[in-house]
Amino acid sequence: MADRLVRNSNSLRAVPAPDWGRGAIEPMLPALLRGVIFISVLAAPFVAALLAG
Where are the transmembrane segments (predicted)? Predict the structure, then answer.
């Protein structure tokens, strides 16, 4: 049983490391922008109520 587990784990292919260069950040920017817009839309009524007193 143990030798079968070792054989299976050795046969797994290595997963390539993600590219943390400039190309990995660019697709994340639109998602961050959507998140900021979403949170600001949710927070707008509360901010307006605080400003109104």
Answer: 31-52
Sorted by sequence, the CB contacts under 8 Å of residue 18 that are 6+ apart come out as 24
d(CA 19, CA 48): 42
Secondary structure of residue 44 in the 3-state scheme: helix
pTM over 0.70: no
**Cα–Cα distance for residue pair 7/23, rounded to 1 Å:** 36
Q: What is the DSSP letter of 27?
A: T
Handedness of CA 21, 27, 31, 34 (dihedral sign): positive
CA 36 to chain centre: 14
